[in-house]
Amino acid sequence: MERKARAAQTEAALKAAAQRQFAERGYLNTKITDITTAAGRAAGSFYQHFASKEDLLQALLADMHGQASQVFDDDGPAHDLTDPAQLRQHLAAAWQVMRDNRPVVTALFESALAAGPASGELWKRLTGDTVVFRDHLRDLQEQGHALPGDPVLVAAAMGGMLSMLGYALLPVTPGAPGPTDAPSAADGGRPGYPDAQVVDTLASLLLYGLAGPGERGAVSPG
Amino acid sequence: MERKARAAQTEAALKAAAQRQFAERGYLNTKITDITTAAGRAAGSFYQHFASKEDLLQALLADMHGQASQVFDDDGPAHDLTDPAQLRQHLAAAWQVMRDNRPVVTALFESALAAGPASGELWKRLTGDTVVFRDHLRDLQEQGHALPGDPVLVAAAMGGMLSMLGYALLPVTPGAPGPTDAPSAADGGRPGYPDAQVVDTLASLLLYGLAGPGERGAVSPG
DNA sequence: GTCTATACTGGGATAGAC
DNA sequence: GTCTATCCCAGTATAGAC
User: Fold this and answer.
1) What is the Cβ-side half-sphere exposure of residue B134, based on CA atoms within 13 angstroms?
2) Do B157 and A187 lie within an 8 Å CB cutoff?
3) In this structure, what are the phi and psi dihedrals at residue A204, rounded to the nearest 5 degrees?
4) E strand spans, chain A
5) Mind listing the pLDDT tens digit for each residue in B110-138?
6) pLDDT single digits (tens) A96-113
7) Which among A6, A182, A184, B28 would be 20 to 30 A from B96, CA to CA?
8) Looking at the complex, does the CB of residue B122 fall below 8 Å from at least one CB of chain A?
9) CA–CA separation, A97 vs A94, rounded Å?
10) Do B26 and A110 touch (CB under 8 A)?
11) In 10 A of CB A65, how many CB atoms?
């Protein structure tokens, strides 16, 4: 195999190793050498491919965007987040993206947070990641629907809820205690809520709130 | 002034300086020397009072608990989180605590997050900080009220929403762009939502969801 | 108790051989 | 391109004078 291919292979190995390390140790705790040794490469080789850890993270983000772009092209009919099925669908999609890209998503979260409260990085991330929600909420508003508040704020609140639970609950190992039904006490003492339960709960909470659907009936009636 | 008083004074200065630095730079970015120089003390003096930055943070937490303990002794009549006034009251109290102790609260947040996803620290924090919500939700459940899901999960979701928005939105400077009415673009590019707006929005969202109160009428009718 | 000065360490980044 | 070896700095923590 030629040089170019070898280089690409090394870069891929570094990326893969980084994802594993980020998931296990967290982005902030992961050292460059952790990545290189996990990838079976020399420390110096890292800089042949990435300028820094942050640079690597951006590369992973680009990869993720490339893959997951088609997931979110919801160009269906008029959206209505107050439709139980549609809201659930949106939340499930968001949750799935977080699950599928947990290392990157959580690393971005850690990175934004490490920038400090005054930097506004977290707010940028929060609003940036919730443009879909925000736009759909604006649609609702324009159709005369009364929202709980400013679409930007409501969308950010929803996103904050999601990211926080994703960071705290999603299992570190890609597919281990996730879709199981038993809340296993392993994995750092965190409970292993099944994906469906989390999504159902959030959908119900965000749609009808703590008061419940009232006269309208349950969330998933049929 | 005697030695003991001088020592206490230095310790207080270090604590105060730490709070300022945590707010400005973020907990993770704050170095020991940042604190000592901000306090006008020598670097070495720090260790006379605290074993580490983490130790200092715990001391600040203890101080905070001492002050804010009376805020949360809500021993009134039977609680009902589905009562608009009570829910709003609870959220307002939580928001106020975050505002009053922003440096400490956000530092704890950063600290828990830096421990990495696998540590479960964030989940512990999330559940620990929402015991009040959780208990009240359990009360509701025992009274036959149907909740959106497991009380622990719902409480954590509420708490996640709150902490995230608190971290992202609360102003760095104790009282500057907070209760103003104009969303100033200063302060790191973050909007300055008035406290009341945030609390109202969250109360409305959490009580009736995106669908709104329906037949029940608005959240604050009178 | 507080200071100044310094030892020590982890980890980022580079130099140069292969 | 990848390796080994090393430099170098930031930051923690300590030693010892005052």
Assistant:
1) 13
2) no
3) -65, -45
4) none
5) 999 999 999 999 999 999 999 999 999 99
6) 999 999 999 999 999 999
7) B28
8) yes
9) 5
10) no
11) 11
pLDDT, tens digit (0-9, with 9 covering 90-100), for B1-34: 566 788 999 999 999 999 999 999 999 999 999 9
Query: Which amino acid is residue B50, in one-letter code?
Result: F
The structure's pTM equals 0.93
Shortest alpha-carbon distance between residue B186 and chain A (Å)? 10
Angle between helices B121-128 and B131-142 (to 10 degrees): 60
The conformation of residue A172, written as its DSSP 8-state character, comes to: S
| Residues B157/A202, Cβ–Cβ less than 8 Å | yes
Cα separation, A58 vs B10, in Å, equals 43
Per-residue pLDDT band at A76 (split at 50, 70, 90): low
The full set of domain ranges for chain B reads: 1-50, 52-208
Percent helix / strand / coil, chain A, rounded to 5: 65, 0, 35
User: Which long-range contacts (C-beta less than 8 Å, at least 24 apart) are formed by B121-126?
Assistant: B122/A164, B122/A167, B122/A168, B123/A168, B123/A169, B123/A188, B123/A189, B123/A190, B123/A191, B123/B156, B124/A189, B126/A164, B126/A168, B126/B156, B126/B159, B126/B160, B126/B163
CA dist., res. A23 & res. B121, Å (int): 14
Q: Is the pLDDT of residue A219 over 70?
A: no
**Which superfamily does B52-208 belong to?**
Tetracycline Repressor, domain 2 (1.10.357.10)
Å: A62 CA to C6 C1': 46
Write out the two tokens for A78.
């008029």
Asked if B205 reaches chain A (Cβ–Cβ under 8 Å), the answer is yes
For B28-57, what is each residue's pLDDT tens digit?
999 999 999 999 999 999 999 999 999 999
* Contact yes or no for B18/B31 (Cβ under 8 A): no
| B210:A156 CB<8 A | no
Total residues found in chain A within this entry: 222
Give the dihedral sign, CA A174/A175/A179/A181: negative
